[in-house]
Amino acid sequence: MKKLNKLIISNFFRTFLPTIVIVMFILLMQFIWLYVDELVGKGLEWQVIAELLFYWSASLIPQALPLAVLLASIMTFGNLGETYELVAAKAAGISIWKMFKPMYVAMLGISLFGVFVSNVLIPIANLKSRSLLYDVREKKPALAITEGVFYSGIQGITIRIGKKDKRTQEMYDIIIYDKRANNIHSTVISAKKGKMTLSNDGRFLFFTLYDGARYEEMETQRNYYNSFPHSSTYFTQEKIMFDLTVFNFSRTDEDLFKHNYEMLNVFQLQFFSDSLKVLKYKKALELKSFVKPYYHFLKNDLTTVSSKNSNITKGDSVLNLFNSQYKDVILSNAESNTRTAKNVVSYAITERNEIKKNGVRYDIEWHKKFVLAISCIIMFFIGAPLGSIIRKGGFGLPVVASILLYLAYHVITLSGEKAAKTLVWTPFMGVWIGIIVLTPLGFFLTFQASNDSSLLNKNAWVNLIKRLFPKTKKI
User: What would you measure as the largest C-alpha separation in the chain, in angstroms?
Assistant: First the structure.
């Protein structure tokens, strides 16, 4: 029995570890293609890109882990069934439940790892990746001047070169439009050739020009719009300095992002959720105090008032208590107060709904911290009996079955989360709907595997169809 346990566990992890790496690599490629335009052409160091990919990989574990468990379970028990090792174990009196027994500890370890990933690793990875991606987006493209193309990457400067010598790095037929001093009229500088050099600290770019001219509008002169004075100078050599600090890559303070619901652990999510509930209650009390000044009730009963005024009867309008000259003013004030109260209530309802939606986001994320661990257990109890039933190993039928099952789970879970975010479902139902749907399937497949079911046996289905639709004999 110990040898069988070692065989099952070793086969499972030999399949599980490569599978999770392959799945994460495929999902990571999707992220790379999604953000490739923001990474290319900015002169980023490879350490920055590697750090970003590492954080993305950590955030992909919740998607890759259940699929890897499902595929490894199907392939492990499918291989055992294909080599008749399951048949031999059952012939020796070992039930399918005993064969699953060594995997219970493995699933417990994977589930605990899933809780650690969801509660600790994912918030840190999301915080690091979001702040780093923000810095990458804010970084200016790298300084790359192409022949015959106007380059405007430096603020206030547009440069065009006709030709560039790749060996000496000298540039020819240079035109520079400088708007740093004047946004309306550019200072135009042209030169036959030039050369670029960087300062020792890399903060400044020095452009040395040879045999050129400088044209500048003298807009600061008095009566400029009458005579339009300008200045033209010629030079044999001139040096221009550009500030390159905008091209430097700087890291933003991560405290700006850490209060997002995706960057919090279970205890922080619970704290913010409770805080929003308290805030919603306070807003309800504030609404009462805001609306109260806009409505008034008659303290005295009309019967009492009518007894004092013989002209007023019980069925008359309240306006009859006042002179006709005040009735229009009273109606106008009442209409204005009613409109104001309506606007106050409408704004309060909108604000309350926004608070409720934010609270739902925190509640959804709180439930997601635990759904990963349970999904791994459910995927095992679907994959292991399914593999023992189909009795096929390798990357053929098991891969197709696992992908279809996982896609069904993923679509159901995403649909549930969307329904919860739109307040159609509760956060619990929205997050756990995938587990609720697949749990009966796991029990059903495990029951079928324990009873040597021929659920996926083609010959059994053919015989069943023949019994249901017997051929009629010809007379």
Answer: 119
